Amino acid sequence: MKFIPYNRxxxxxxxxxxxxxxxxxxxxxxxxxxxxFENQIKKYLKSKxxxxxxxxxxxxxxxxxxxxxxKGDKVVMPAINFIAAYSxxxxxxxxxxxxxxxxxxxxxxxxxxxxxIKKNNLKKIKAIVTMYLGGYPENIFEFYKIKKKYKCxxxxxxxxxxxxxxxxxxxxxxxxxxxxxxxxxxxxxPVKSITTGEGGVITANNKILTNKILxxxxxxxxxxxxxxxxxxxxxxxxxxxxxxINCALGLSxxxxxxxxxxxxxxxxxxxxxxxxxxxxxxxxxxxxKNNSAFHLFLISLKRNNKIIKEKLFNYLKKNxxxxxxHYIPIYRxxxxxxxxxxxxxxxxxxxFNNNLSLPLFYGLNLKKxxxxxxxxxxxxxxxx
Length: 384
Fold this sequence. Notes:
Elements: H1 13-23, H2 32-45, E1 49-53, H3 56-66, E2 74-78, H4 84-91, E3 95-99, H5 110-119, E4 127-131, H6 140-150, E5 153-157, E6 165-168, E7 171-174, E8 183-187, E9 200-204, H7 207-217, E10 221-224, E11 227-233, H8 244-254, H9 257-275, E12 281-282, E13 297-301, H10 306-318, H11 346-354, E14 355-358, H12 366-383
Parallel strand pairs: 2-3, 2-4, 4-5, 5-8
Antiparallel strand pairs: 1-9, 6-7, 8-9, 10-11, 12-13, 13-14
């Protein structure tokens, strides 16, 4: 058996053909494929606007700059997350408050958000950044109500959740439609459901925010309508553009999104059935729902013993199966020194000690799935 990664990109001949076609154009930077890709994204997600960018992290930076996060502004986000949102807010001078998470899902909940606000006596908040770990959207409308109460921005870090949805008033609503948020950010890194190589997109319904993001994405350049060579800069920006080559690949990938999510969901259900009768593993409640992007399959070990998790990780690796940690709690990184006590985040600590992501990607065939399940079965038998 060849080494099985925890995730990988899916590229077919159709993808190669369209990228090859894009490469033959006169313009391969920001051209017609960028516009087509953005139009198809907003059509799929049912948002008014979609702005492509060079990565999910770039998207978060643009979004947080567009809402004018600055020195002293208070931002709340989950303690379990990739470092990008925290790092960006820190560099913008914001005061960041980490909310604890659900111990099984690793996601910030309305209750842990409220607890963070109360504990830190926050009367005024500039922004709340949510994160749908593994691609499972939870509590969207509850977060929206908290946003309304504090009159703050709600930014969805949806980098794991392209294609995920939720039900509101008996209607299916895609994450990224921004019905209950200000901005949503997606990543198209190779391990995500669809890829542009590297890249991301921001979705919005607010024209003012969209125009700010468009300016920031390209150095703050504002071109004169009838004088292409003449331009003005009234806001300093960045080069966070995505090329036609990337967007050509994205267009081709987007046509397969339904097929990809269905494929990933079948792998997910195979794992789920296997673990249903396993006394050593807890499956979160959201696994019963079918609105996910199925980005990750996350298991939580019952014994609350980090050593067992590490043993399982190393055992799988020895058998050519790469599992993954999603994520190390933000406050544990050495950049913080010893300023933050781990005891302040009991649920995040429990999650970190017990949680593991198993391989899940398009192309993980039944033979490989059965091999993974066989090795897992042997591990848990020995554990008893």
